[in-house]
Write a structure and sequence with these properties.
6 strands; about 220 residues; about 40% helix; alpha+beta; elongated
């Protein structure tokens, strides 16, 4: 119940009790008890109507769309990662294009919503906005005969991360293989492989240009 309504009802009832004591002094306790009972019945009706109006005027807020945490094995070396991404992938641009066996990995943990928004759809980017929106936004994914991956942007509040998750395709579902944080978003497979080839991807602030400068400096030495 609305806190203001509760406090108002309590305060008004104390006033009623005080007035009833005054009435009891003139008309007797029986009239006083009848008076309090009638007022209590009216207050109960008033409280119920106030609660109904409060609920109807305040739209229900849905919980944030978040999927269940997935535990990935230790990440392999760069050579192994690039080998996985040399497969012939069919690109995925919408969450609905995922195979049915893989969709539960990306659905909200307490309902059937996708916890990852499609490209261009509203999502919780940054620390301001609708808290019920997904905190992840799909960039693109890929599906091959043996492997699948999802490349997406993850909102961390002040800053966002660009991530890739790789899975092994099985008839009963996708098995986690490795995950990686990238320095920036990739727009196609070629760019994605280049980003994975860059050493020390754990630093999200580093750009491909920065690594090219370091590589050129090392070559001159």
């Amino acid at each position: 119940m609305n806190t203001r309504v509760v406090h108002g009802v309590r305060w008004f009832r104390w006033m009623v009790v005080a007035l009833a004591l005054v009435i009891a002094g003139f008309s007797g306790p029986a009239i006083s008890r009848w008076y309090i009972a009638r007022v209590d019945a009216n207050l109960l009706t008033l409280s119920a109507r106030s609660l109904e109006l409060t609920r109807s005027s305040s739209p229900a807020q849905r919980a944030p769309a978040e999927r269940t945490h997935i535990e990935f094995p230790p990440s392999p070396d760069v050579k192994e990662k690039l080998h996985v991404l040399t497969a012939d992938f069919q690109l995925i641009h919408k969450m609905s294009e995922l195979p049915e066996v893989a969709k539960p990995l990306f659905r909200n943990w307490d309902d059937n919503r996708f916890a990852m928004a499609d490209p261009g759809e509203p999502w919780q980017s940054g620390c301001m906005g609708n808290g019920s929106l997904p905190r992840e936004s799909l960039i693109f994914g890929g599906l091959s005969e043996d492997y699948a991956f999802v490349h997406y942007e993850l909102s961390r509040g002040i800053a966002n991360n660009y991530r890739i998750e790789v899975y092994r395709v099985r008839p009963t579902g996708w098995q986690p293989v490795w995950e990686e944080t990238l320095p920036r978003a990739a727009h196609d497979m070629k760019q994605l492989r280049k980003l994975l080839a860059v050493p020390d991807n754990s630093c999200c602030c580093a750009s491909a240009g920065d690594h090219a400068i370091h590589k050129d400096t090392a070559a001159r030495r």
